[in-house]
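Minutes, project check-in
Item: structure for the 54-residue chain
Input as provided by the requester:
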Amino acid sequence: MVALANTVERPEASAADYDPTFNPDGHGLLWELTKDAASIALLEDSNAAGNKSA
């Protein structure tokens, strides 16, 4: 529960800190990816670093 209490929000997340990125959201993520700059940047940075995204 300690890790859950210290979850990093997307705007504060850096692709350099993680090997993969996982976006649990379902259909909501599809709408978010067109408008949320933090989500877009995190996925683009992950891709540029050669990290896996799910």
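Outcome recorded: Residues 29 and 49 are 21 Å apart (CA to CA).
No further action items on this chain.
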